[in-house]
Amino acid sequence: MRQKKSRLTTCQICRELKPNTSECVDLPNRRIICKECKAASHLKVFRVSCSWQVDSHFEIPARDLNEAISIANDPSTPLPTDSDYVPSTFSVDEDACEEMEGEEI
Fold this sequence. Notes:
Mean pLDDT: 76
Number of domains: 2
């Protein structure tokens, strides 16, 4: 019988390397927390408001540049699907963050 390989994971609270994922709890957003940390603390859930910029381009058929820009600016035009993160634009809006009432991990 083949033995299941364990993989190393890092607890995102204590930052210790754990040898086996069965010793960890996989939380939403792929956050790994070991059972010891989970048992030792009553973690709350927070909604953290954040934003960032992306860079992309449209390929828009139009009669001229002004029409293409008008189509791009139209709210009904879908956003491009291929985009690149603009470095150093990630930010957290601390005033918009909130605790999710009644939820614990």
